[in-house]
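By convention, each integer encodes one residue's backbone shape. The lines below illustrate.
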Amino acid sequence: MYRILLVDDEPVVIQGMKKFPWQELDCSIIGTASDGLEAWEQVCSLSPDIVITDIRMPGIDGLEFSRKILELNENIVVLVLTGYTDFTYAREALKNEVVDYLVKPVGFAALKEALNRAVARLKEKKNIDVLEDRVRSMIPIVQKHRLTALLRDYDVEELDSEDPEHFYMLCLVSPDNDSALDSYVLERELQNKLNASISFREYWYYVFVWMFPRTSEISDFQKDLRLRLENAQEDMKERYDVSFSAVISSFTVSMNTISVLKESAVNQLQLQISAKRGAISIQENPPENEISMEKYRIEIFLSLASTDPCILEHRAESFLSYCRENSRDSSEMASMVQSCWVGILYLVHVKPDGIKVAEVVTESSFLENLIKLKVSIDDRDRSLQDDIDRTVKAYLNDHYSEDISLLDLSEKMGYNPTYLSRLISKSCGKTFMKMLIDVRLRKAKELLVSTDKSVAAISQEVGYRDVGYFITAFRKRYGLAPAQYRVR
């Protein structure tokens, strides 16, 4: 049986709730309290599974009480009772991870429904299945920072590392309605249900990332994730009238290719939303040999930016060793080397002087050609630095109010996005995303001083669709909220 603690400062409410047929719900009342302080003592001493508490009471109010409970033991489920219908209280309760918000008087049917959800949450917390245990990544803090930086800032120069022991996969989710409430509910519910290694919001969508051992069955996880999303979609539609669209990506074996994975998923999500909202799709996984080849291409490409020539030599030799071990004959070996060479030139995207795409590159000439390519790229980058700086700044000043990304700029300029990211960082001293944030916040500051537009209107005008996210970014940069900055 699940152990229940009842908390209300009205004795008639406590007595009335005691009359409910708790045993039918597989529950039993282990204690009652009439104020927050007494209730806190009982939580500490009795360790209930579920706490049903009034939102306003002497000692500690219900919202503060629920926060303290979850700080003490995150496995306790909290239900809030109140006579107030103001949604402000509901929103604060949801922020404190309260499972349900019930308005008095509470009937048996409503309480039963709420308790069923509470019991489901307890089972989810206490009986995490084997697959979820395997997926829950114990990623070192440094790796989490690297993944987040790569996905949000495309800062590839700081991420020149490989991790052959893991797969990486992500899921993009977008609310079907562009409202702050829908976005808030979506973020809160999916963070609880998807159990991602990393999650954050970017523009109009949310990004969830997983990292797990190469021994895992990726297709099984993708199917399980889709089922979780479908269940979440049904639950959120019923409880909050909130719906969403989602794309589950294919996977990659290299941390450095995950930004490419993300851009592909963003493109599919945009197409999906324009065709049919509410859809959940899975991108097809490439064969294992294609994944390995892509990893080597990316790693060799990144080593072209290194000032240490030994890194390029080491990466090239690692790739050639892989080819020797996995090719059946000399013809297949030559095909793999040539394929990698053409792929690297594609990543560079703009053909350097003296390098022919159609040139046949053999095992013996592979490293020599890479060194020649590196010299050519370095010479060209130096000549392009001033032009890149001017072009990027002009593009940001013209388009900062739109939902733009590095992919948009790379298509306009004719560069591979990963290569352009490296070039922008070298030429401008900042990543594309950091430059975009600088422009948006500077424009917002100007509008706050020179106009009487609302903070929400300014947020939209400078490219932030979520006013809460805009306020947070503004306060982080300038030390004041936008409204405070305006009247300072």
Summary: The chain has a mean pLDDT of 78. The chain has four domains: 2-126, 134-285, 289-380, 434-486. Strands lie at 2-7, 27-33, 50-54, 77-82, 100-103, 166-175, 198-202, 205-213, 244-252, 280-282.
